[in-house]
Amino acid sequence: MTFSLSDAPLTPRLTILMPAFNSEKYLAPAIESILSQTYRDFILLVIDDGSSDSSAAIASAFGDPRIRVERNPQNLGLVKTLNRGLGMVETELVARMDSDDIALPERLERQIAYLDENPDVGLCGTAYEIFHEGIQQIIQPPSKHEDIIYGLLDDNVFLHSSIIARMAVLNRHSLRYDESYKHAEDYELWVRLARHTRLGNLPQVLLRYRSHPENVSNSNKREQIATRDRVRIEHLETFGLLPTPDQKKLHMELFDLRFGGGEERMMSARHWLESLAEAVSTKCGIPLSRLHRDFCRLWYSACGRSARQGLKALSIYLSSPMARHGSKVYPCKLILRCLTRHPIPDTGN
Predict the structure, then answer these.
(1) CA distance 21 to 18
(2) How far apart are CA 46 and CA 304, in angstroms?
(3) Which domains does the chain have, with CATH numbers?
(4) Residue 7 reports pLDDT greater than 60
(5) How far is it, in rounded angstroms, from Cα 8 to Cα 130?
(6) What is the rounded CA–CA span in Å between residue 258 and residue 306?
């Protein structure tokens, strides 16, 4: 079914963008959760990405005038489908929804109310619940802009299918998903978006994320991690840091707890982590003492993996404010490792 969003007599405030590819197993419950929202003024734009199953028929069968179904002529992949969908949006706001998740009834109402109360916020996500075959886990991402910017230093702190964004911000800065960041395209977009607007997450659980083997995050884990690491490095620019190739390598080793090196490299690691803490504190207004406490685990891991240096590694560890603000357990563990020259193994702490 081909359509134009301008066919609607009155344009709602919100378009919900839902790509679907061979989604017949979970699509109906996902759509039902949107139609059951307490906020009802929206267009649900379902884009079938060349499915070989009955996804398009399922979406069309609802008969709700708020549902619009578009079909790609062939499978274009998620990123191209998302960008195609954004090009169709004519509303003030755009929300994401995956074809296998469940939106809780007040999701849209609460997010739109938050955006109305905070006109300087250009993107809003929510806390969420991961569920799968009796397993349930609540995820509470950071909610304040400054904590979100800090959190993006390590990983994506938004559930993609929970976000609502202002189209004016996306269009003003020509922001779209980048195809070269496949499987972490949302993380990369949020990092760029953060340079132009404030971001927020609601602390209420408003979406249920269905975990199953077909999830992109499960089926493409290795590629997703490699792309995520590119974004982590690029986000350093947000804090005014332009690392050298050696510093990029050092940064990833520290954050992945796989540091390796002798005395000179330990001193480089200390300098990098302390400089990073200073930059984050300046950008986000987070107290240095908190950042030193947070980074202490990275610093202990680096020194613990260098325990073959003996008590020299302990001396370097203790010379940093990260040690003074961190867990008091770490010096005790490090003393034992340094005395026995038994470094932290690759999988331990």
Answers:
(1) 10
(2) 51
(3) 5-219 (3.90.550.10), 240-340 (no CATH)
(4) no
(5) 35
(6) 11
